């Protein structure tokens, strides 16, 4: 591994305004630009920022400086001073691996080994698909450390190839050291489509051109659960993407599954993924906007035993929150009309700006309004390879509703 010229790292002493200092003491990983009261030098992306208590001058935390981001310092280490070196990265990755240990005793060889801030590596995501590791970077701060981290990741995960993905923002501004999105950093890749297992069900991910790192691992436990309830049932999977829920349902013995997505390409991979597993149920695909598709299915009086609605994030920014909430309400309202008598509705949200409480409240108000009795069977959050270390780290929530209860 020798992708990046070795870069000198500056050490910058920083002091914060009182409210920000309180957040750091609570181990919140973000320091905003306007909360810095003193900074010993300007610095560049990836320089080490060491935060000292404003009054007592003692070490509080250290992190990496991100001069172009409103989140100016991304914190790695709290309370106890430690050198951020190869050993620190090895320890951090080993402790992340430890948290995934029980998941890896299941028939699963795809997992998120590093979940950004939640694993002490802000803006750094790493997913494993069989023996391919896919890194997705969201910040320039990681370039000076990339070689060291990749070497450690290879050793700990035993990956045979490493692919680099970069966020659009990262690609559009600042120095990227001639690295390209989709570049192979290590090993070889015969095919950009990688086969992997999720609780015994086989999937494929395009690690070079797929969304994010190629697949969404976060719903694994929910998909397994839907698979487990699908025997001889009819299932509707709205926003199916590559068929996460649909394929588990088919593998679980569903009679018929309909996958609906606006993307023809996503549905083609859902079909390919279904074919990777033995199943006797039928798989229909429907290319449509979810809201229009649901309205059409309602007008055709179609009903399904299980309806799953797992949309993309509707609130990528603050200004979209209200609309996002309205969209969740519309989806719950439309979705409940699709559920057959005594069927199950599964509603999910991945917008971190809409809290779990708000989402469940919105969904359940619509279910009450439908006039049908229902029971909330369960509410679930992230799978174990997506640990949550701070409030903004929590984005996924999923409600299971049994309809027409007494
Ligand atoms: N449920 C999936 C993940 C969904 S990702 C899983 O378990 O893996 C979100 C999906 O929503 C993407 O595939 C995207 O193509 C699709 N999408 C976005 N906007 C849409 C719309 N208006 N109607 C239907 N699908 C949409």
TrEMBL record:
A single Gene Ontology MF term assigned here is: methyltransferase activity
Q: Which regions form coiled coils?
A: none
Q: Which SUPFAM superfamilies match?
A: PUA domain-like, S-adenosyl-L-methionine-dependent methyltransferases
What GO biological process, any one, is recorded here? methylation
Q: Where is the RlmI-like PUA domain?
A: 14-78
Q: May I ask which residue range the UniProt record assigns to the signal sequence?
A: none
- From the Swiss-Prot or TrEMBL record, state where the protein is found: Cytoplasm
Principal subcellular localization: cytoplasm
Highest taxon, organism lineage: Bacteria
The keyword Zinc is assigned to this record: no
The record's listing under Gene3D superfamilies reads: PUA domain (2.30.130.10), RNA methyltransferase domain (HRMD) like (3.30.750.80), Vaccinia Virus protein VP39 (3.40.50.150)
Q: Name one Pfam family in it.
A: PUA_3
Domain S-adenosylmethionine-dependent methyltransferase, by residue range, is: 193-348
Q: Does the keyword Repeat apply?
A: no
Alphabetized, the UniProt keywords read:
Cytoplasm, Methyltransferase, S-adenosyl-L-methionine, Transferase
Q: Which InterPro entries match?
A: PUA-like_sf, PUA_sf, RlmI-like_PUA, SAM-dep_methyl-trfase, SAM-dependent_MTases_sf
Q: A cellular component term (GO) from this record?
A: cytoplasm
Similarity comment: family membership: Belongs to the methyltransferase superfamily. RlmI family.
Q: What is this protein called?
A: 23S rRNA (Cytosine1962-C5)-methyltransferase
Lineage of producing organism: Bacteria, Pseudomonadati, Bacteroidota, Flavobacteriia, Flavobacteriales
